[in-house]
Amino acid sequence: MSSMGSRDELDPVWDDMNRTLGQLFMMGFEGTTVTPQIRKLIQEHHLGSILLSAKNLQSAEQCAKLVLELQQCAYDSGHPVPLLIAIDQENGGVNTLFDEIYIRQYPSAMGLAATGSRDLAFEVAKATGEEIAACGVNLMMGPCLDVLTNVRNQPLGVRTTGDDPQEVSSYGVAFMKGYKEAGLATMGKHFPSYGSLEFLGSALDVPTITESLESLSLNALIPFRNAIQEGLDAMMVGGCAMSSAGLNVMHACLSEQVVHDLLRNDLKFRGVVISDCLEMEALSHNIGVGGGTVMAINAGCDIVLLCRSYVHQQQALEGFRLGVENAMITKERLRVSLKRTLTLKSKCTSWDKALNPPGIDLLSRLQPSHTQLSTKAYNSSITVVRDKNRLLPLANIMEPEDELLLLTPLVKPLAASAAARALTEHASTGSPEPLMWERSSSVMSGERVFRELGRSLARQRSGRVLHTSYTANGVRPQHENLINRASAIIIVTADANRNLYQHGFTKHVSMICNMQYNSGGEKREKPVIVVAVSSPYDFAMDQTIGTYICTYDFTETALNSLVKVLYGEFAPAGSLPGTISQSQKLSQSKQHWLVEAFNEERDANALDILIKSVSESSSPGVHSELHSATSHSFLIRNPEVHEAHFVVRNSSTQALYGFCTTYFFKATGTGVIGSIFVDPSRRKLSIGHSLHNRAIRTLLQSDGIKRFQLGSRLPSIFLGIPTGHGGERKRLRSWFANLGWNTALSRVVCSMVARNMSTWAPPDGMAKSLQSAGADFDLVYGWEYAGPVLDHIKTNNRQGLAEVYKMALADPSACGIIRAKRAEDGAIVGTVVLYNMQSQMAEFVPGMKDSGELAGGISSPVISPSVGEYSTLLQGLILLGMRQIKQQGCNVCILDYGFSPRQMDGDGSFDGLSALGFSTLHNFEEVSCDAATWTMVPPS
């Protein structure tokens, strides 16, 4: 059957729009035989590409049979061209097709990089390609072209060839050429690089690339660029988010900026672009599969991937059709993608090839040479990073009858490994067999993942090999007994940087062994060998681990090569890939987070959740001022105050990771950072730093800015740096000092509370002492009293005061002003605001709600600087306020917005207020500085 006419013209068969749409999908299914669902997709929806997973494949023979049946179904249904049949066969721990007899195990990508041989990498890729091609597969979902720049948080691990972009590039091209030599089409992944992803949240969170495009271009994009120049057939664009300056992408594969601009235009890629699986929960949850399909095609993807859900696959097909019918996708756009897809298929398949796979006959002929290649590759990859005390081979340090202890972590076996199958079979039989390998008697319990390693170690020595597992419970008495008993210890780790219990356990055992003494009381270190069986980064830079070996995966073949190294059967020649031999790569990555303006409609619910999370997770007393706050508590909506608030958020889930508020008080020229807080589970990732820098940049642009202040009296959630308890004050002061604030010049302010107002009475003699103040006190309501009151408070230039008073004067039903007037001339010398829980002001004072009782508030005392009896006047104003609050039936009185610290002690207490029954609710440190001298501090 023909598929294309001339080079530029499509065969008329493709005028059938349903045929065209089918070619632009790749789908998977559940089952080891052709299911009714996948048959319907091929027959009725003209599905053009299929991705097989480990759940579909049981053996090489079954794989070949299944693929042939799928192709026959397509042929019988009148497909003009064969199906693309794709699998992931990266080797190491990621193999879709496993068969102990016919499919060989080869090292992971990083393991091959450790051999130092591009030729060997090419040969392994070619051999891998030949094996899967024999089963009818024609598209390799590889090579992996990611540069590993974030090793601590990175689950890709050994699937990449390392952290050096040129090295990743050269091995990636070698793999690609090997696959092509075997007749497969190739697909690079995971564009624009998964090597620096941050995994920061729930299943609904999308991993995020926080590097800028400029940074990516100088590093992570190099392997993709070079592979494209060398003839890469297809590219998978990841479903990750991208968040950096000028770039906010929810899912890369749905972004025209990523697919069309970056991949097509900048990198000049002309091959097939395949989307990441649109069934990912974050995408289907936030966008929907139907809409996501239209977005992917319009972004520039040629083939949309849906891994297994028949419901989602139907939604995608329906969304695609609707997109075409509604002219959201043009027919010309479809023809471009169809041409690319047909060109790819013409390179790797034909009906003659698809309906006549070589199968087991070819695999049988390949088996001997491929077995030799597997052994050679593994033996060449094992890396002895250090052996300071020459513990290798084990015969150097152990007598024949000595006991050897093997300590292994409890980890899941690799999905495509004999250990996984043995474990499943063992569980199904209910066998109680414990693990201890020796030539004779007793047994000890252990775990089964590394059973073959223990057996291999035991086969080659007459002494016992004791084997037990370790967990997050640390070193137990059983471990200590075995350590004392053994003459040497081997500790296995598997991604200790992401499973920190392994790191702690290994260091603890190492310490125990360093403190051993012989019978004569002399110190005698017990030999310890640490083997990293996945990521080599576990202890690459830790010189206290004297003997350190890396295998790069824990397949049976890898561990067989490890045993040979331990017993000296060959000299290991592997070396650490990339730059980790030369420099420390485990430092915490600093990131520049995308900071967005707070959008109340979009972010209010998420902010309420963030507030709750921060409040609940803090140590006692720290951030408790947030307990009753809501998103509304930060929005004052005052025309005389310009407020601008910022968030760092997950654009897919809408969750907020951080929040910062700024207020510019025009009357005083003061720019205020009123709050800044970060999701407790995402601290120390530079989110707060990014928010702070954005806040300062925004305030610097305010017309008339004179000074900056940390802490706001309107709203009064944070009056300054929350000092909390214990080391929290020191930590927060240090954090803000590092950002440029002179915390040495801070001043203590606080909010206070008086409880049990129903039984409260003023101290004896206080009322009489007020008479000596030479002032008359009264309580007024409403705007008609505004003139003299507002003139009075101008004597104090603190931010927020005028706004508080204006709010109170405009709300006479819920607020009043207590005035102190000089007896001789009636001039106002002191004022304070009185308000209740129905007032607008109460919304900005979370402490009003915290008590759970009827509460009243006293706010913003202002005493004229010309008054000598400052403390007496202050006491008088607050005393009268408390009387009013008690008369209203309130049982709690909140004194908020702080007050002049003229007569406060260093700890924020004030004797005159303590005597009135107040205790400190929250302590803060208010910090101010001149805006003209501010220096921006870059993230470090």
Defining traits:
eight-stranded parallel beta barrel, 19% strand, 33 strands, Aminopeptidase, 29 helices, 940 residues, 13-stranded mixed β-sheet, Rossmann fold, alpha/beta, TIM Barrel
Q: What is the number of strand segments?
A: 33
Shape: globular
Biggest sheet descriptor? 13 strands, mixed
Kindly give the count of domains: 4
CATH topology of the largest domain: TIM Barrel
Rounded Rg = 35 Å
Which residue ranges are poorly predicted, with pLDDT under 50 across at least 5 consecutive positions? Answer: 413-446, 582-590, 900-909
- The CATH first-level class of the largest domain comes to Alpha Beta
Ends distance: 62 Å
Number of helical runs? 29
State the CATH superfamily name of the largest domain: Glycoside hydrolase, family 3, N-terminal domain
Q: State the CATH architecture of the largest domain.
A: Alpha-Beta Barrel
pLDDT averaged over residues:
85
Strand content: 15-25%
Helix share bin: 25-40%
Structural class: alpha/beta
